[in-house]
């Protein structure tokens, strides 16, 4: 059974297949009726969401089925039912399980017990569905991903930074995480990305030097306070101020650079309004592409499961 818990669960060739399918589904939104008539996917949230919730539900509808979307506290998991029992039960109803949770190990436990594909729709470690949408968006602007230099500025210790390293290295993009020394990625994620980059020719770098953004084709940032970090007692403002993406920073990037942000955004913190609301920003295409990329991912996983069963 194939699951999608981490960006590097897909090989470079498999990721390219999903991205090609996502681009095709953007033009042919109802062409794959894999959930018709009336099959379901189970979508569970332990954290808040706008984009993920609506994009998975819309994708399921486009595929001819329905997403049953619940907060985990509304399920018996909120009262202590085990992840394993939940996985086994949901596998009897749904074609796939999509879960936004805290500990990444929760997803691994769900996947180990499930008989249907499990999709990580954000954990404390990774947000791989977002990276598929980001790659689709970048491909809409640049033909050859392997010639692209991407930079991510801000909180380099969060799930987005980890997924950018793993997912972009898989796609062959050069990725530099530019973050204060106290907010850089755990070495285990850097090592994993470097291993993957060795297969694709990508470069993975981590620095606190903001001048590393010079010449970037893709400039990315994210909130300085990821979900679950609101009460962690750290100063999540002062250390990040020099890393704000503003017009001055964008001037240092390539003239044809695009700006990405997974949203929600906090103007005046991680990004200046002049950038996110300016001509280089593609954040709403990026948000739209969550729909197409996740639909493609579900089709890819379900078709893979069907082939494996033959
Ligand atoms: N980017 C993202 O995952 O958005 P939501 O938190 O609104 O789902």
From TrEMBL:
Residues 148-301 form the Aspartate/ornithine carbamoyltransferase Asp/Orn-binding domain. It comes from the Bacteria. InterPro entries: Asp/Orn_carbamoyltranf_P-bd, Asp/Orn_carbamoylTrfase, Asp/Orn_carbamoylTrfase_sf, Asp_carbamoyltransf_Asp/Orn-bd, Orn/put_carbamltrans, OTCase_ArgI. Residues 2-140 form the Aspartate/ornithine carbamoyltransferase carbamoyl-P binding domain. Carbamoyl phosphate binds at residues 76, 100, 127-130, 262-263, 290. Keywords: Cytoplasm, Transferase. Pfam families: OTCace, OTCace_N. It is an enzyme of class 2 (transferase). It catalyses: carbamoyl phosphate + L-ornithine = L-citrulline + phosphate + H(+). HAMAP family: OTCase. This is Ornithine carbamoyltransferase. It comes from Corynebacterium phocae. The lineage of its organism: Bacteria, Bacillati, Actinomycetota, Actinomycetes, Mycobacteriales.
């Amino acid at each position: 059974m194939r699951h999608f818990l981490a960006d590097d669960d897909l090989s470079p060739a498999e990721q390219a297949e999903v991205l090609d399918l996502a681009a095709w589904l953007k033009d042919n939104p109802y062409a794959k009726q894999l959930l018709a008539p009336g099959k379901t996917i189970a979508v569970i949230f332990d954290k808040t969401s706008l984009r993920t919730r609506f994009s998975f539900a819309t994708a399921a509808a486009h595929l001819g089925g329905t997403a049953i979307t619940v907060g985990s506290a509304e399920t018996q998991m909120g009262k202590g039912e085990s992840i394993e029992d939940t996985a086994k039960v949901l596998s009897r109803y749904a074609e796939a399980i999509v879960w936004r949770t805290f500990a990444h190990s929760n997803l691994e436990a769900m996947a180990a017990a499930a008989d249907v594909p499990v999709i990580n729709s954000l954990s404390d470690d990774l947000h791989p569905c977002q990276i598929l949408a980001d790659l689709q968006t970048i491909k809409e602007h640049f033909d050859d991903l392997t010639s692209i230099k991407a930079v991510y500025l801000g909180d380099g210790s969060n799930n987005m930074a980890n997924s950018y390293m793993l997912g972009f290295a898989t796609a062959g993009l050069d990725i530099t995480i530019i973050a204060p020394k106290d907010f850089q990625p755990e070495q285990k994620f850097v090592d994993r990305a470097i291993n993957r980059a060795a297969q694709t020719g990508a470069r993975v770098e981590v620095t606190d030097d903001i001048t590393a953004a010079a010449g970037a084709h893709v400039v990315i940032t994210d909130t300085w306070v990821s979900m679950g970090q609101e009460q962690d007692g750290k100063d999540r403002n002062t250390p990040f101020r020099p890393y704000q993406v503003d017009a001055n920073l964008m001037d240092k990037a390539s003239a044809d650079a695009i700006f990405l942000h997974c949203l929600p955004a906090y103007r005046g913190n991680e990004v200046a309004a002049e950038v996110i609301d300016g001509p280089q920003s593609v954040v709403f295409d990026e948000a739209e592409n969550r729909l197409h990329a996740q639909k493609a991912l579900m089709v890819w996983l379900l078709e893979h499961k069907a082939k494996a069963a033959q």
